From TrEMBL, chains A, B, C, D, E:
The gene is corA. Belongs to the CorA metal ion transporter (MIT) (TC 1.A.35) family. It is found in: Cell membrane; Membrane. The chain crosses the membrane at residues 267-286, 298-318. Keywords: Cell membrane, Ion transport, Magnesium, Membrane, Transmembrane, Transmembrane helix, Transport. It comes from Herbiconiux daphne. Mediates influx of magnesium ions. It is a multi-pass membrane protein. This is Magnesium transport protein CorA. CDD domains: MtCorA-like (cd12830). PANTHER family: CORA FAMILY METAL ION TRANSPORTER (EUROFUNG). It holds the Pfam family CorA. The keyword Lipid biosynthesis does not apply.
Length: 324, 324, 324, 324, 324
């Protein structure tokens, strides 16, 4: 189902739905309202149809079809195009999955083109339809609500990443060998997340400046500032994750060296303990004619006791020095 | 107790306290003074009541309820909202604990919403009530005093962190193995502290610009510059802590490698000392028919002396070369 | 063949080709169109001829002859000179090969001087000749199309680099020793690519500003914004490659240390397993008069069994502790 | 002695000194000159007295009393307050010692408050009194001379630090183990020096801007530019020290690893040389019935010769391979 | 010879040379031309003489005498002072040698004060005298030509540094131990070169801005842009050298660790090969009454064969696993 929803809003309330896209345009003009069309993974033909009806900017339509855009905002005459990057945290793989959402914004229409499950635009629509005062402010209100949803959905990503970092810290100081691979891979995810969220701050600034210029509705501006603030907090957290992971990598190098020191001490201790009896054995293996111990009745047990005794003494010494 | 204090000030002096919040508003208007209401962890209902009385901006109220804001300043029409991050140093855990303080500032009211023990607002109030000239400047004077208190309370944090860094340096050069973990964790605290204090500099700039624009009272502007200067000093110190800890981490990696070099030398020396007698023993364990020493009366003591002598000679040699 | 193509366009359509360069200028003026001359590795004389005909700025001509310019845009009176750095990825050597393309842009001419196979300007010309509406916009349309082609040709470079990074990650965690050399060399390539692409963003900004100032054609401006956006994405990717490779280098240092730890454990285990029989042998090589085992009928097999048994027991112990 | 000097200058020449501070103010007004009062570690009361006489800004006075300010410049109405950080290099400890100097600057007075031995203000006064043309320009001339002195006194610090870095480089490549501690500590000093000198560049810019605005005396402006230039050179040097020390730290890690490689080779070589005779001894310690060598008259010397020979051969081999 | 050349140019052509400096000034005024005086390491007296004649700014003269300036441009009324840092690459020491060149620029004079062999100003003069059109533009044309020469002389430095980096890369991957020292020292040279060249970009910007403001000759502006572009390329290359050397340092640390891993494997292999015969010898050195092999006629050769066989088998095993 390509067209997820197709509604015309007048004064913040949903009016009878148009039967098809062709009708939407007329209805919207007739009722002096605005249209909000939700598309899901449209093909070139389908997007083309909408584009013709609403006279969308061709370059923006191309971008929407091509996908893999960085988050951006672009003005084409009276219409605006936004590419946004919603994100989801996949806990099983410790991976951040990025979706893509394109928004065409005109004076009397807003078209949302979703390419992934997230963000949950049905919920955005429900929230707005329950708040006619906000929805009455037109397409920009929809844009605000969409941005708010996307940024809200970043929070679980941030929490997921933070949780992994906590686990990594535990692994790190417990000597888990796999931790450097995990740090590397999580760094990669954090960097991708930074790339996705960083431009959003500029986008919101652009939007806020545009609103300020047109002396637009104060509530919308305050709302956008709120979203902006949320974005900044997320960007800041992601930055601190990068630094923590960088530190963790450096600490790990040191810990690996320290582990080695400890192991070398342990191994050397055991080598000494094992070797001492050999020395005793070698001495009593000498072929001197006059070696009294060799003729003792208890020479052999004495030698064995000497071996064990020296070994045990060394063990005690190393234990006390913390080498074992 | 949610409402910690609720007073109306006229010309810098406290007048008879209103009986409840409803009355505050009237009293304040009647007496042409300003109200300062101090709240402590208010619930949604309580904050709602105040909000209605003073017509606080809803988004700001939401932020105050949600908490976990980054330090920020936001203007809503004639009222201003600040989120601030007081900090306390918990020496026992070497942790920085962050509180949260929200300030609603209007033309004739200031509402402080505290979520943690710090900062000590009672003391701020006392200080101001003892300085009617300053308090007479209205809500901005209160804001200044609150900021001053918060920034003053950062000093012990900075001192605590510096103290830890001094200890870390001692540990570092005394070969304490735990130091890398401690460096990592302290870096984390410093980074959190940087995140909390860094935005304060922008907030103070915004406030100073606003005051400069309105050609406001010079004393207040000088006071804010003073606080600003203090913040800059703290931010600078925190930055230098980060760099010192980063350096300490790098030095530690090197020291661990150096330790290993020293240990390998020591262990090898002892291995050689232990091994030489074995060589002697092996030689006199050979079964040649004609080995004069084997038939000496003092052959055995001679061999033992040779063993000890060689071992001791090696010990001396290694000692002189600094390997032991 | 130095002159690859030499055409005069009027209203977006190719008119009868001039017979030689001398004629081009007259024809172009006569028909009120613009000339697009494509040169391939011209010598000083040939470039000089063109330069005289079109009054090209001498310093720019010098640059075009000297080569090895950084990407730049320079205005000389009414004419503009661009040095551009197309790139190709040579998969066999994991190397990025940089070409050089110089563009002289006047009000009624555009001269492209190519020094390498890439970019494929024949294709650019074909594309433009198939789009007369765009070509009718004059020399700037040609410049746009050339920039678009160059930036499009960066994409395979980015993909090639990303592919190498993926391979490097596999090598890294599979313990391939060659990986540090490869990381170093790929970093070098990425840095060269960054140097080549980075100035392009400024160039496009300069162009867009110039167009905005002259209130030029909206379509061209939107087109250039599109190219600009593409450049930004490429620059961003290249930046992230640098960071990933940097991280990979750090991780590699740690992994090398970890490998060593594991090997030392393994080697020490085998040393212990090998050494224990020697201890047994040494004991039964002692010359005590009273050593019952020496007289047992099965003393020798017993000793061998003891050797094997102890060795096997140690093997099991080390295996269980993960040292082997 | 708190008041080091207390003079009134008219047209660049020192007039009869006032008897005490109370008189200074009157004398200065009477003679239409300006006062220059030099204080050394004044207590609160003493500073208070001066402050009352010259109406100094209270917040600045507080700062001057509290000390531990970062270098800064602050305007209070017609008077200006500067906190400056002179520095001295203590060669014995390889430490940079920071003083503190506060300057109150009015239209007709300049008050210098010194808290450490440096800078040598007596010399500044002498220099100025010998240059009446300069001194006639008033308090700003004094400020310039003070700044000049402070910045000149930074040069020996820079030289001291550079000298230490040269020594560190020698230590580094001579394998001195103490070098990492020294690098760490010198980095710390360099960072403190950067913190002290860095703000001076902004202070000089502020001063130069203020002078440019008031279209002030060209000579003073040129003089301040000269000081500014000197500060920039010092800041640049200090930055390069930081980078050199950072590099030295990295190189040291590598050198420590390299040392270890060399030692392991050396130790292994000696182990092999020592072990070979043991193998020979073990062979001739076997109890086979038919071993011809055992019955040779010169069997024993032959074995010893074999031992020595093999050891010497190995020694030669390792020597040639550069392991010894 | 302090005065290298002393000429007056009118309309781009050299006129009869004045007999001495005193005359230069008059001649220059009389002929309405400009003077170009070339000095080489002048003493205070000589510079003083020139300074008096041309009324040079005293602070600039002081700087020219003191030397060790950073590259800078300073305007003093109608005259301008430049300190420039020419550089030469000394291949033998892999060192960059910095000279110093001071230029005093007035409306009708240019005085160049050289303190080192480079740059080759005689060549600059020859070039200009061969290009009267350029020289006719006056002192600024001389300045341009001097800057052009200095920047041209940076190219061999860049090439020398690049060549060293190529050699360092070879050393690095061939395991040359000296490479870390070389990297450190070359980094130091690169940093010094960056310090020398970096300010030149700002100087050229200042010059170009000044020319643009005065709507000066277009050719000179284009020429300076050309020099500026060259400087940018050099600065960019030097930056990339720094990064490459940094990377090389990191890679070296890893390679040293890897070398160690390989050596430990090799050494351990040989230890095992050497040790196995010892085990065999120890077994046949046991004193059991019933050991059939001891009584075999070929027992001894059998044991020797066993020793060699086991050693050879181990050698093969380690060889196959790549440890040898």
């Amino acid at each position: 189902m390509v067209i997820v929803d197709n509604a015309v809003y007048v004064a913040g309330r949903r009016t009878a739905d148009p039967e098809n896209l062709d009708e939407t345009f007329e209805v919207m003009r007739a009722r002096a309202g605005f249209a909000w069309i939700g598309l899901y993974r449209p093909g070139p033909d389908e997007l083309d149809a909408v584009s013709k009806e609403f006279d969308l900017p061709p370059l923006a339509v191309e971008d929407a079809l091509a996908g893999h855009q960085r988050a951006k905002i672009e003005k084409y005459g009276s219409s605006t195009f936004l590419a946004l990057r919603p994100a989801r945290y996949i806990d099983a793989d410790e991976r951040v999955e990025f979706g893509e959402l394109h928004v065409f914004l005109g004076l009397d229409y807003v078209i949302t083109v979703r390419h992934a499950e997230s963000p949950d635009l049905a919920q955005v629509r429900k929230r707005l339809e329950n708040d006619p005062a906000l929805l009455a402010k037109g397409p920009l209100a929809v844009l605000y609500a969409v941005l708010d949803q996307i940024v809200d959905e970043y929070s679980p990503v941030i929490n997921g990443l933070e949780n992994d970092i906590d686990e990594i810290e535990d692994q790190l100081f417990n000597g888990d060998q796999e931790v450097s691979k995990r740090i590397y891979q999580l760094s990669r995810e954090v960097m991708a997340f930074q790339r996705a969220t960083h431009p959003l701050s500029d986008i919101l600034e652009t939007l806020r400046d545009a609103l300020a210029e047109h002396d637009a509705d104060t509530q919308l501006r305050d709302n956008l500032r709120d979203v902006h603030d949320h974005v900044l907090r997320i960007v800041e957290r992601a930055d601190s994750f990068r630094q923590l992971l960088q530190n963790a990598l450096m600490v790990h190098t040191t810990l690996v060296g320290q582990d080695q020191n400890n192991e070398i001490k342990k191994i050397s201790s055991w080598a000494a303990i094992l070797f001492t009896p050999t020395l005793v054995g070698t001495i009593y293996g000498m072929n001197f004619e006059y070696m009294p111990e060799l003729h003792w009745l208890l020479g052999y047990p004495f030698a064995l006791a000497l071996m064990l005794g020296l070994g045990f003494a060394l063990y005690k010494i190393f234990k006390r020095r913390g080498w074992l």
